[in-house]
Amino acid sequence: MPSIPEAELIRLQANQAHVRNICILAHVDHGKTTLSDSLLASNGIISSKLAGKVRFLDSRADEQERGITMESSAISLYFKIRRRAAAASIAAAANKANAAAAAAVAAGGVVTDQSNDTTTTAITSTTASSTEDSAANSGASTPAESVAEEYLINLIDSPGHVDFSGEVSTASRLCDGALVLVDAVEGVCTQTHTVLRQAWKESVRPVLVINKIDRLITELQFTPLEAYIHLNKILEQVNAVMGTFFSENVLEEDYRKKAEKKKEQGTTESTTGLEDTFSDWHVETQDDSHIYFHPSQGNVIFASAIDGWAFRVDQFAAIYAQKLGMKEGVLRKCLWGDFYLDPKTKRVIGYKGLKGRALKPLAIHLVLDNVWKVYDIVVVNPDKEMTEKVVKSLNLKVLPRDLRSKDTRAVLTTIFSQWLPLSTCVLLAVVEQLPSPAAAQKIRMPKMLHPFETTAPEPTEDWEKGMIACDPSSGVVAYVSKMVSVPLDVLPKNKRKTLSAEEMRERGRAQREHLVAAAKSAEMGEVGVHLDVDEVLANRELKEAEDKAAAEELEGKEALIGFSRIYSGTVRVGQKLKVLGPKYDPAYPTQHCSEVTVDSLFMIMGRDLIGLDQVPAGNVFGIGGLEGHVLKYGTLWSAEWEGGQNLVGKGLETAPIVRVALEPEDPSQMAQLVRGLQLLNQADPSVQVLTQETGEHVILTSGEVHLQRCMADLRERFARIEISMSEPIVPFRETAIDAPAQIVTSSAMAVNEAQGRDQVAKLISKSETGARGTIVATTPNRHVRFVVRTVPIPEDIKKYLSDNAEQIQAYVEDNGGIAKNNSGVAVLTGEVETGEKAKAQKKLLEELTPLFAKAGEEWKGREKDILAFGPRRVGPNLLINQLGFDFSRNRNSNNTDTVEEGHGGITVQDMAESILTGFQIATNGGPLCGEPMLGMAFFLQEIEILDNSQEAGGSGGEGRSKMAVSSGQVITSMRDACRLGFLEWSPRLMLAMYSCDIQTTAEVLGKVYAVIARRKGKILHEEMKEGTPFFSIQALLPVVESFGFSDDIRKRTSGAASPQLIFSHFEVLDMDPFWVPNTVEELEDLGEKADRDNVAKKYMDVVRKRKGLFVEQKIVEHAEKQRTLRKN
């Protein structure tokens, strides 16, 4: 097929009804990029013979080398259908019905059964496919009266590797529909769950593509019946995942409705059993038919992307309907499932009509048998005579030279590309099953704008109406999902214009006419203009030199363009827009907001960019001029509108966990490294770039593969210098449990903390009378004395604080003014503004109150006394006020009688900020190795201003002048008291853990187990995938032991096993880092030297050494032996 002119693609952007924005989602190596190649071949972008081999959308060298996609790539495709006039009117009616259904969904919030609409659409599908030249050939000729329909399909190919989950979020946010690929052999894998959840969360309508069916025939050698059973199981697995999402959604809505009903009735009494029963009936009667995949609905495609074929049952229904004398719609519903063809009556019967007869289901008899037959005669048992007969019976036009080819795969691809072409089937399913931007935004926009509302309110603002209607005449609203770095020489303004075939013919025609005119002039004796050959050559050399200099100037330089989706209005070059940052709040319209002028607009075509003058609503596009205004993602808003709405959703599914410190090998190139890190931070949505207090430049990545990609980008594109990288820095957490503590006074910890601080050690000491963990601290100037008790937080409360960190962070950030201006006030009971902040405060209190009551008398009611969360004001550690009076500085006048005034004008309340700061510092760096604490509570029991503070000065003014000194000393004393109280319990390190999923065969199962055990992992469970020779293994692996794990396991198993590592959680390493043998049994077993390796101490010492903290190491272990080192 010839390449599509750019003007055609640009023209179609204005027709919203014929635009589709889709992404391809799948687990790694399930065939996304190969499928994309086949779709590109249909537009003449690559050769059809190279589809699946060239991997066009994998434009990076490391992507081609590894064979995996690392960055989302977009491209726009052209698709043309010829329908019968009657079918076109039916399709238009179906589109209107779908739009009406979408509007009903947006208004009512509940999707009803749309089986009638689906049937109508499917009829259109078969009609269109039968009239398409390259569709399933049924022998019918193209009707004289036909209507051509042209579509623009904006396709985004996303990565499947778990390290690049951020790219999947980017792709799904921009699209209205998705092709979800599942490997026919491996089935539903870990990342399949992730991408389905992402599509569900973003209200993206999916179409299921079961890919690599050829492996069932050639690898596993399944019969059609075995394959049919296996494919049904995959459908069940995918539908089970979708059903889980639906159930969660329904139960959440049901719970919310119950809570609202109780609130209206003004009672918190529990419902009766009868009411619960009615509620369960209500949940069961919710219609969920619209969320499932079934071949009869047209939303399931069976494919082999590497062999270039795909089909839906609609195509075979169109072929066999006339032969069987059945209605096409009826046959379509019967072509997959427990339906059989009675050979005597030629009628379709159900399972009950079998009466013991061994009949094949229709799906096998009419569909799979035919596909298996072609593979059998072409690849499995090659038979040229039978191949020619099959080609003739299918009425295919295959050249004899192609049939005589010795490459059986090439013959197979040639036959299938005409019989069941992949591109036609997939693009037709996209056009008919997935919504247009106008239809999709009626569903997606209310959920995006009102994510916490069960039923979205009616739109009142102009911008909201424009977004829901996808109105190109409204103001501009667009979402920038990520910034893409491209070389400057790729931009259209810097590229030499490539002439089309028509332009080249026109230029040749003009040249010929000029020569003819010159010849005629010569015959008539006219004297032409004399040309100086040397001057012409000199001008040519000068032009070539200028072009070369311009190319050298552009070489190595990068530009940032925004990868965007426009929801409303029409954006134009030169237009002024507002940029709303991720932290933009409509309540503060001047903060995190800037104005930008649109520098350029692009249609993204994989590796190339096409310049545009304007982009109407409903399209995916690239935008220039945002550098310095958008860091990673943001919202573009019309400058004429006041205020704005932040469209940035939640952050990444998995936070970056692997960090390394970077420095240039040549110190003079530090500025280039800093500039390169800035570009990397903008161009990669999943990376985080930090500058630590020590001055180190650190990057945080999602995994080992992501780290390698970032380093390649820095060295080759962004910084273009040699960079040295530290060993990966893995985060730990410090916690304590209720177990006998080891004596640590002689350990590295005690030496480090107590060295040179004999006087301070006397000021901060364990309480003789208080409970375990109680510390009495006095500042060095002996002005302030306080008592703090450290206690491990109960498991339920700790789990809640960890799971709801985002909710707590949002609440604390909204109420930041309280914490800053009124330190010491309880976080959850302080005065807040009415509205959303009050609701958030009430919700947190309601959820924490039963957890604190369940934890025991010591904790009951203490949720109202929480002074701060830590570290960084949002972590899973608590500072609790147990003083018995208000600790806030700006206290009300009516409680002054409970406030303890100090001497010299200094009050207890003046120390509130210092106490909070000391708590934050202590929880941000624990005593073991300076890592954040997790799950510790600190009860502030006493605080007083001592009498000898009068020595600082007689008058109140002089005493107040010393408050700065006292405040600093209170911070350090509070920090040390918290750390010492922590060590009173039995301290533990918490390891970051990966969830490891591996699929492998039985032959290498033992080797997989050995690699996991050697790296201190543990197997959770294993199961054999029914119908396949593969085992699925789930394990937990410490992140600190995971580096090189993938390469190691592939090497040991000769490539038969490949792991997927996803950050899961922090897990306690149940080993005391200060453990030494004490009892008689331990001394007998291990000896005084304790030969058993203390893993916790090893991890702790490695971190302390990296941070420059004291590490107790014996230089000479045993003095009995002497080693002599000889140099060669």
Write the layout of secondary structure elements.
Blueprint: H1 6-12, E1 19-26, H2 32-41, H3 61-66, E2 73-84, H4 85-108, H5 115-131, E3 146-157, H6 165-174, E4 177-183, H7 190-201, E5 205-211, H8 214-218, H9 224-265, H10 273-284, E6 300-304, E7 309-311, H11 313-324, H12 328-334, E8 340-342, E9 347-349, H13 362-380, H14 384-393, H15 400-403, H16 408-419, H17 422-433, H18 437-449, H19 462-469, E10 477-487, H20 501-523, H21 533-554, E11 558-568, E12 570-572, E13 576-580, E14 593-597, E15 600-605, E16 608-612, E17 614-616, E18 620-624, E19 634-638, E20 658-664, H22 670-683, E21 688-691, E22 697-701, H23 704-718, E23 723-725, E24 732-737, H24 748-754, H25 758-763, E25 764-766, E26 774-778, E27 784-792, H26 795-803, H27 805-814, H28 816-821, H29 836-854, E28 866-870, E29 877-881, H30 912-924, E30 936-945, H31 956-961, H32 963-984, E31 986-1001, H33 1005-1014, E32 1018-1024, E33 1030-1038, H34 1045-1052, E34 1058-1069, H35 1080-1086, H36 1095-1106
Parallel strand pairs: 1-3, 1-4, 4-5, 5-6, 29-30
Antiparallel strand pairs: 2-3, 6-7, 8-9, 10-11, 10-19, 11-18, 12-17, 13-14, 13-19, 15-16, 15-18, 20-22, 20-23, 21-22, 24-31, 25-26, 26-27, 27-30, 28-29, 31-33, 31-34, 32-33
Helix pairs in contact: 2-17, 4-5, 4-18, 5-11, 5-17, 11-12, 13-16, 18-19, 22-23, 27-29, 30-32
Keywords: GTP-binding, Nucleotide-binding
Organism: Linnemannia gamsii
Pfam families: EFG_C (PF00679), EFG_III (PF14492), EFL1 (PF25118), GTP_EFTU (PF00009)
